[in-house]
Amino acid sequence: MDPEMEQIRQRRMQELMAKQGGGGGMPISPEDQQDKEEQARALEEKRRTMLKAVMSNEARERLSRIALVKPEKARAVESMLLGMAQRGQLTSKVSEEQLVSMLEQINEQTGGSKPKITIQRRRYNFDDDE
């Protein structure tokens, strides 16, 4: 193979590794990548377990439905609930009604308002009586 082509290939591989988070062009070994993924899964499982402990089934179901539409809002509510639980502010499991009131408060704080929908109908010239 041409030495110039080999250099281009090596440079391209280094660029791809850097884009994938390899940092400094150092390739990530498959074991390191697997360890990172395993840590992320363990952290997410711990988060789900803690949420299950502080929320009622109905509240968890509602939050999962919200996550389908607005995942960032659901993640923010989850983080808020976990923080409250760690500080000892939750005395019992969060009910669906409490979750709804928390969501309403968040909407008021973030300035979230109901979307305004306007419908414009097209008017055609041949609709006129001439």
Task: Tell me what the structure shows.
- By secondary structure, this protein is an all-alpha fold.
- The protein is flat.
- The chain contains five helices and no strands.
- 68% of the residues lie in helices and 0% in strands.
- It has a domain at 29-89: PDCD5, DNA-binding domain (Helicase, Ruva Protein, domain 3, Orthogonal Bundle), CATH 1.10.8.140.
pLDDT under 50 segments (min length 5)? Answer: none
Range of helix content: 55-70%
CATH class of the domain at 29-89: Mainly Alpha
Distance between the termini: 79 Å
What class would the helix/strand composition place it in?
A: mainly alpha
Query: What is the succession of H and E elements?
Result: HHHHH
- Provide mean pLDDT, rounded: 82
Q: Which value, in Å, is the CA radius of gyration?
A: 26 Å
CATH superfamily of the domain at 29-89: PDCD5, DNA-binding domain
Q: How many strand units?
A: 0
**Biggest sheet layout:** none
The shape, in one word, is flat
- The number of distinct helices, counting runs of at least 4 residues, comes to 5
Query: β content, as a range?
Result: under 5%
CATH topology-level name of the domain at 29-89? Helicase, Ruva Protein, domain 3
CATH-defined architecture of the domain at 29-89: Orthogonal Bundle
Family: Belongs to the PDCD5 family.
InterPro entries: PDCD5-like (IPR002836), PDCD5-like_sf (IPR036883)
Region (Disordered): 14-42, 110-130
Protein name: Programmed cell death protein 5
